[in-house]
Specification:
Largest sheet: 3 strands, antiparallel
Strand content: 5-15%
Radius of gyration: 15 Å
Distance between the termini: 37 Å
Structural class: mainly alpha
Order of helices and strands: HHEHHEEHH
């Protein structure tokens, strides 16, 4: 039974300001969807990368395939236009993946939070 607490490692670091940053707002405007819908789709994409890659590099994956998985046509092209996704010869890459995703990002976030509490 779920007690409302995520299991260890079952979370992503998202800054409180992220939904209002210019990038997700530009993505929403470009796709003609609400900022909330855009942020939700972006979060789902980040979650997919966290669960399916080790380093933010999705080899042999295309923008069209990710759009299909996330369920928002044009999302990945819109994310590419603001620099939040990169198309490489080998697939798709999330820049700065290690800042927010994967074990490295999670460890860094926890250490920062602990340090702030002890100040």
């Amino acid at each position: 039974m779920w007690n409302g607490c995520p299991m260890a490692g079952d979370w992503l670091k998202v800054e409180l300001v992220t939904p209002e940053k210019l990038e997700p707002l530009a993505i929403a405007a470009g796709l003609g969807i609400s900022p909330d819908a855009a942020f939700g789709a972006i979060f789902r994409l980040w979650r997919w990368f966290d669960q399916n890659t080790i380093d933010g590099n999705a080899r042999s994956v295309t923008l069209a395939l990710l759009d299909l998985v996330i369920g928002v046509t044009g999302l990945c092209a819109a994310m590419e236009s603001v620099g939040w996704i990169e198309v490489t010869p080998g697939g798709i890459r999330l820049p700065n993946f290690d800042r927010h995703n994967g074990q490295t990002g999670k460890t860094r976030a926890l250490m920062s939070k602990r340090a702030a509490r002890h100040r």
